[in-house]
Amino acid sequence: ESELYIWAIQPTGEVTFRKSDLKPLWQAQKTSLFQLVGDTRDSIGVQRGLGVVPRVTVANPTKKLQQLYQILIKPIADILPTQPNAHVIFIPQKSLFLVPFPALKDEAGNYLID
């Protein structure tokens, strides 16, 4: 898994394709997107399942929430709606179903849903 493919479909039907490079994640940080999603969920207190003990303890989950934002949202941030009442629908695949999308934060610390 070296790239993440992202398609964004506007209400007009216009389709935009972007990709996110995952190589820095597994080369520099020695982790995978799957692992980052799990660690992020652990850091905000979301359990993985019954009887599963979190592998990591993170006092401040902001860094992990920002990492996921950089990978998943930043590549399409310029085409996301800016109107407060506009709807955004994510159709994730595999471990991305577990991403806490509303909790993701940009570089300034703003939540995705702000």
Mean pLDDT: 87
* Distance between the ends: 30 Å
Q: Based on CA inertia axes, which overall geometry fits?
A: globular
What is the number of helical segments per DSSP (H or I, 4+ residues)? 3
Structural class: alpha+beta
Percent of residues in helices comes to 10-25%
Sequence of strands across the biggest β-sheet: 1-2
Which consecutive residue ranges, at least 5 long each, have pLDDT under 50?
A: none
How large, in whole angstroms, is the Cα Rg? 15 Å
Order of helices and strands: EEHHH
Profile the largest sheet: 2 strands, antiparallel
Beta strands, count: 2
**Beta-strand proportion:** 5-15%
Question: How would you characterize this protein structure?
Answer:
With 114 residues, this protein is of the alpha+beta class. It has a domain at 32-103. Helix content is 25%, strand content 12%. The protein has 3 helices and 2 strands. The protein has a two-stranded antiparallel sheet with strand order 1-2. A hairpin with a 5-residue loop joins strand 1 (3-9) and strand 2. The chain is globular. It starts with a strand and ends in a 42-residue tail after the last helix. The model has no long low-confidence stretch (mean pLDDT 87).
